[in-house]
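Tutorial sheet, problem 5. The two components below are modelled jointly, 590 residues in total.
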Amino acid sequence: MPGRVSAFGGIETGGSKWQCAVGTGPEDLRAIETFSTTTPTETVAHAVAFFEREGPVEALGVGSFGPVDLSPSSPTWGHVTTTPKPGWANTDVAPELRRRLSVPVAFDTDVNAAALGEHRWGAAQGLDTFCYLTVGTGIGGGGMVGGKLLHGLVHPEFGHLRVPHDTAFDPFPGVCPYHGDCWEGLASGRAIEARWAKAPEELAGEEEVWELEAHYLALGLVCVISVLSPQRIVVGGGVGTVPGLLPRVRRHVVDLLNGYLRSPALGQGIDDFIVPPALGARAGVLGAIALAAAL
Amino acid sequence: MPGRVSAFGGIETGGSKWQCAVGTGPEDLRAIETFSTTTPTETVAHAVAFFEREGPVEALGVGSFGPVDLSPSSPTWGHVTTTPKPGWANTDVAPELRRRLSVPVAFDTDVNAAALGEHRWGAAQGLDTFCYLTVGTGIGGGGMVGGKLLHGLVHPEFGHLRVPHDTAFDPFPGVCPYHGDCWEGLASGRAIEARWAKAPEELAGEEEVWELEAHYLALGLVCVISVLSPQRIVVGGGVGTVPGLLPRVRRHVVDLLNGYLRSPALGQGIDDFIVPPALGARAGVLGAIALAAAL
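Model answer (structure tokens):
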């Protein structure tokens, strides 16, 4: 279309689905498609076909499930590394997309992409230190400190911190293949399904299920708050956005902190401290577009 | 002395002692004094007398035990806030020193000051994302992300994250007045002394004591690694620097991570990942001098 502003491509790659979009932001999403994650070859081909059809795009941003290699100088930059997802360990994602689409590709974690999206257009606008937590099939976290996306040695992997686990009260051993009862092992959607033998969506209204879930989520968030001191925590994901869960989580966080850290945000202001994503389920793909635009 | 480069003042304020120094860095420390922390009035007067005698200083940096108020716009900026230390809750520290000495005062946590010292002259040179952990009477942590000291909403308080606590194996309830068995409640010097009814320095060579200590320190460090992904962790403090402890901590950290995060630093390279402070017990006061110099 002559005179039209050029567009960017974004992909949020997840362990169960990929979401691809073309546009420049939430008010200008020209195409969006979500499809199931199958084999790496088939899934990448599906994404390539989408951008060939809906493009051209000036650059592509990818927010990926992980762990991933983010080191620009590494021979495996842009790969998914030790994921327990069958068939996906050590998979080339970003370099393959770059070869197939012949555009520059920015690559980060799915949660850092979502954090960037929420920072640019959503619930984290104007903040310089905040976290984005996703609680879905797994648990992941990312965010910004001092206005920059958190990277460090590898990248944050909130899901694998350890939380107290009273096995007398909750004998469930956890589902993490690496750590058993780490945070993700106890509180991810996969853990809920394994503990209660029902999918999270079939457990609506079950007091015991959601109190325990809120308890574990709050224990992990207390670690995040103690280590990073975020100005806000945005909680997304299929489990994280279950109606009624966040108010429980907020209550447990305030109880656990017990007034030690003096900030209105951790008391009366907790409703504005632990919040849902303003961009909903599109935070990741929009953040991926923001990653591309920042290239 | 005519022609001499002007000097900065630094104070590391601790719950048990204060250390004051005048100089420009580790190679130019013109005076240093350590004295016990008594009442706020008496302790501040002691520091003021030191700088009046050893100065003048161009500016003063203070690295303080906490929690503290770091918000420049707050009416209680430069105060210690909810500390459980008797007589010290809600104490004006930095503004009082500024009034008494009539110099600009920079104020941060003791651990952020130590992190800055290690970054400028010690074990964290050239890194942009790392942590400084102190394990002494209490447990505290600070550091840099993207080359800037971590602040956020309040400031990091590593000591109050929650770690798994198997009460069947270790029935000790913890010593934190706010949280009982948080990290500091289980693994600080105060906790060791309360659990074993002996001071840490009387427990040298006690296998059971130091294996349990290393276990708890590693559990907390796994949280720090999962949240921040630091490039290195510098461990100081009277307990943290007990001979033989860090090798045990490193082994537990590697075991707990179980190969999930792929980085040489978290495997073969662990000896260069978890390290003692290069500036030893002077990291804090030297960092305070660096805080003053940066004003």
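Marking note: Chain A touches chain B through 48 residues (CB under 8 Å). Full credit if you identified this.
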